[in-house]
Write a structure and sequence with these properties.
Blueprint: H1 3-22, H2 27-30, H3 41-60, H4 65-68, H5 71-75, H6 90-95, H7 101-119, E1 130-132, E2 139-140, H8 141-168
Helix pairs in contact: 1-7, 1-8, 3-7, 3-8
Length: 169
């Protein structure tokens, strides 16, 4: 297995678990929060897709699917178009509301497919390419992609936990 195949597999697993986390939920369930300081399932899934879209597009010098495939307009959120959710206030988390889970999974599916196309033939040597010099040490492509997978998994686990807690109530 190559590094590229490993990354594509990890991203595909994220996609599958996201679908299970939001499948069949109502808009109210997607907006459910344990308390005013926690995130909702809708926010968590939107955010993990936005971070992947933003970071991968930046690392490969491509447009974000958020804009290029019209997802920003479809979501129609009262947020800046470049917003990924980082540092959101409680009110901003509450502002991320969707009519159904299909909007969330559709966007994530497009993001994962875009990432897969960029990564699937990536030679291992390219993983050492510097993609962000604002950090010390500078961030290499392999580190950025691993970070995206880790961040997505963390937020996905939170969404799955929220679904379980909500369904037990």
């Amino acid at each position: 297995m190559t590094s590229a195949e490993l990354l594509v597999d990890a991203l595909g697993r994220i996609r599958g678990v996201v679908h299970r986390a939001v499948d069949g939920l109502t808009p109210e369930q997607l907006a459910f929060r344990l308390d005013p300081e926690t995130n909702s399932i809708a926010w968590l899934v939107w955010h993990l897709a936005r971070v992947q879209d933003d970071h991968v597009a930046d690392a490969f010098g491509t447009d974000q699917v958020w804009v290029s495939k019209g997802w920003r307009d479809r979501f129609d959120l009262p947020l800046d178009g470049s917003d990924t959710g980082y540092g959101h206030s409680s009110q901003q988390v509450d502002d991320v509301r969707v009519a159904d889970g299909d909007l969330l999974t559709g966007y994530l599916d497009d993001v994962v497919e875009h990432t897969r196309l960029l990564v699937h033939d990536l030679p291992d040597g390219d993983l050492d390419r510097i993609v962000d010099t604002s950090w010390d040490p500078p961030v290499r492509l392999g580190v950025r992609l691993t970070s995206v997978v880790g961040d997505d998994m963390q937020h996905l686990g939170q969404a799955a936990l929220l679904r379980g807690v909500m369904q037990d109530r």
